[in-house]
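In the design runs reported in the main text, the only information available to the sequence generator was the tokenized backbone. The following block is the verbatim input for one such run; it is reproduced so that readers can re-run the procedure and compare outputs position by position.
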């Protein structure tokens, strides 16, 4: 498919060929949901923690003698049934992350890219950089594309100055073409992709997939 490439001033420049195997697939909602939940689970920190009776600070001595008091038998004051004692079966830090099949992850990202093309929320613009690193310069550029809400900019590389310029824009996030995140990409109301990033995605997902099928 052909898509228009815009200048940084918002004017049409030329057309670019997008690989249908990357940007023209039927949207697979199930695998998108799977990929987003996988990313959220991998970011989750299992920080909840309690102390059992062995971790409570206190004496190990019996609080009173075993027999003759008429009271329940006590080994020490750290028993879970006493106030200030340990916790029985309480939570401990845990790892919530799990792996996702590589092919499923790639399919999810291609489905999201295809969804953005179908909904006409993906704009391809010529490569640019913000040499000054100033937020004002980047914000003025984004306004020309109606980007005033949750927006994702897909870069061709790790452009430090562009990211610096966008650090103070709360609704803006950056992704490199080879490190896409399903959550950010899916929930972005607008996706602005640099021309070279689009070409790299054609090669990164399209040609590589075809090569894999040929090897099979």
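Verbatim output:
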């Amino acid at each position: 498919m052909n898509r228009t490439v815009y200048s940084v001033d918002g004017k049409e420049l030329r057309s670019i060929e997008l690989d249908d195997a990357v940007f023209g697939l039927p949207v697979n909602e199930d695998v998108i949901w799977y990929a987003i939940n996988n990313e959220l689970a991998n970011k989750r920190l299992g920080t909840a923690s309690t102390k059992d009776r062995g971790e409570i600070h206190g004496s190990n001595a019996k609080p009173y003698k075993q027999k003759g008091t008429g009271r329940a038998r006590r080994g020490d004051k750290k028993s879970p049934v006493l106030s200030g004692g340990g916790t029985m079966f309480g939570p401990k830090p845990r790892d919530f992350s799990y792996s996702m099949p590589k092919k499923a992850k790639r399919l999810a990202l291609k489905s999201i890219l295809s969804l953005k093309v179908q909904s006409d929320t993906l704009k391809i613009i010529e490569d640019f950089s913000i040499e000054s690193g100033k937020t004002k310069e980047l914000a003025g550029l984004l306004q020309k594309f109606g980007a005033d809400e949750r927006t994702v900019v897909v870069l061709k590389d790790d452009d430090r100055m562009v990211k610096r310029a966008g650090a103070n824009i709360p609704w803006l996030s950056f992704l490199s073409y080879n490190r896409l995140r399903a959550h950010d990409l899916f929930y972005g109301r607008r996706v602005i992709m640099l021309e070279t990033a689009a070409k790299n995605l054609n090669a990164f997902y399209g040609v590589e997939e075809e090569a894999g099928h040929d090897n099979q």
